[in-house]
Fold this protein.
Amino acid sequence: MTRQRTDIEIAQEARLCPIGEIADSLGIAEEYVEQYGKYKAKIDNRLLSDMKDEKDGRLILVTAITPTPAGEGKTTTSIGLADGLRRIGKKSVLALREPSLGPVFGIKGGAAGGGYAQVVPMEDINLHFTGDFHAIGAANNLLAAMLDNHIYQGNSLGIDVKRVVWKRAVDMNDRQLRNLVDGLGKRTDGVPREDGFEITVASEIMAVLCLAADLHDLKDRLGRIIVAYRHDGSPVTCRDLKAQGAMAALLKDAIKPNLVQTLEHTPAFVHGGPFANIAHGCNSVTATRMAMKLSDYTVTEAGFGADLGAEKFMDIKCRMSGLRPSCVVVVATVRALKMHGGAGKDELSKEDLAALKKGLPNLFRHVENMTKVYGIPAVVAVNAFPTDTEAEQRLIMDSCNERGFRAVLSTVWAQGGAGAVELAKAVTELCEQDSELHFAYGDELSIEEKIDAISRRIYHADGADLTPQARTAAKELTELGFSSLPICMAKTQYSFSDDPSLLGAPEGFRITVRDLKVKAGAGFIVGYTGDILTMPGLPRVPAAEGIDVTDEGIITGLF
């Protein structure tokens, strides 16, 4: 029996084109290309301003059902779709997020696609890449250092050390750093206070980088970041500490989109990477805009299920940037839907039409949110696994058709772009339909009304309840003039509800918001639900245990 090749083996055996050729295929002049070795490059933001009069191509958003341990394959489908569009003669470009080292060494082991639908060089993309996340972490921690130094040097701004809200950051899952006390030791070692770390992808600077229009906007957003509050309740900003200029200097290269390629040489911008369960879950606006100027079809993705990533893509990214998707792809798998229908993880290889049918409402709810709430046409991509049976795949297709949804089988993991030809055809047809994006809530609503709208319209809850702490925060944020900002819900990715054990399409529940914090630089308010954490921990057996490098410098164990 022939051994199945791993993702990293497939990627390492691929013949890559020099990145200059990929840039040239898009018509990008050499003056805009800053090469990072043979197969990676940053593209100067001047390209975007120089192309401002060029027509934008269509934007396709790839999202998914509620994730499960069985896997959905959203990134793999996005990559395969972009390749498939090229196979039917369309000029397509990818716009994806960068992987975080936390999940790479934690659970995922890599996030650059899989099988024959990958972006490459996958080892570089998964490990350090062009240093963007390190720059973001450095800028984050520079601000933290300047904040604590200001307090130590006399605290002329009158900062209440009990209301410092800015945390340090590191791009690693490290639960030990969630809560700590620093500044211990001698008087010259700093002012003792409670502190903590967030993972870099949860840092507000990551959100700022991904939403900034250009370097000027980046610096302005950095200046608006709130780091603490005075004793009278007024906010202290990054601008008050005069830190924004130095932080922008650290980020001047990180703001430039990264250009790589797929296994089939489709150009791919991989830039920025906020998580969707604790941040807004989308790649940078700059990379998306650049891809749209250079292609007829841009394929992008949003993190986790459509209730998180796609909701934030629409209600935050599109609201702020003016971007509008022409079509949404909702990825589903037989395996994941069976889990939503009650099947155990060790039973997913067996045909179980009853469990599958019971899990289908999760898919239907996500699709209806895209089409009925946001008004964007959608197609279901059934991401095929070798253990699927024809009867199971047919049940999904028929059920979708009965409800008026279009569903297409996708075999990109095994076949690359060839496995997405039918999906590509469906997407191009849907892109021709007239549509108008509607948001889930209006800017004029109160903070509480916006949270309630998301809870009812997207999660299908009976409403939202704010704890006394959250109600106090909402009142303070309203008084400070932030009530017009959109809401970024921090919620478990494993359920429509804030309870990860409620699978499928639960009903009869309410969302509890325990706290609210404004991210004034990013331009949204975060609503914290459940026990969601901004610093994850490693699992019992981290993926890092299987990652290694040979004496010849070849990375192994990434998947």
Q: What stands out?
A: Residues 160 and 492 are 32 Å apart (CA to CA). The radius of gyration is 23 Å. The chain is about 35% helix and 20% strand. The mean pLDDT is 96.
